[in-house]
Amino acid sequence: MENEDDSRATTYTTLASGPDFRHELEVRRSRFITVLRRSPDEETARSLVADLRREFHDARHHCSAFVIGPDRMIQRSSDDGEPSGTAGIPILEALLKRESTPGVTDLSDVSVVVVRYFGGILLGAGGLVRAYSESVSAAMDLAPLVERRRLRLCAINVLHEEAGRLENELRSSGYVMAGTGYGPRHTTLQVALAADEEAISEARSRLASLTAGSAELEPLGTQWVDVPR
User: Fold this and answer.
1) CB contact set of 100 (below 8 Å; sequence gap of 6+)
2) Which CATH architecture has domain 11-143?
């Protein structure tokens, strides 16, 4: 389990867990294949470039960028042979300027590679900047996103026969469920709460009401948790 870190952020937006997301755009006969990967670290981000170089080995360019960390402190980009400043930076800026909600730019833990197949028509510097930027923006319009929050995990031990009902009632009450474990006699439900005492107190009261006081809330520590948007 992750503990509290030095990040000042308590929430940001990222790709939903799952396979790489792909989108293709054609601009004046050139193909721009955009691939997005959720990347919590540089190794994962760089592996996307390596993977796509092998898959699209006959493409001229594999331009890339990534932004990592709750505070978006790690940022890199590469033009990969395109004229300087026409690919990597536009890709990175498309990530950094992406609004998860109006006025909020907090996308992170995302790597992008745009594979370009030249179509025989020169686009010029301005055309390349627009094409790379638009290819990433179009992919982001369709990609599945989640909100990632730093929350306090709490455990609830209940009898197996009561677990399903309690989990459904907690979900119906708006609580974020973060996992389930099974023991010989009890099921352990994990619920993710805002990391403050008021939220803990409210959850304890709600749990007491739902279980007639038979279950208790056990704080486990803080962790980053995906919350559907």
Assistant:
1) 13, 106, 107, 145, 147, 229
2) 2-Layer Sandwich (3.30)
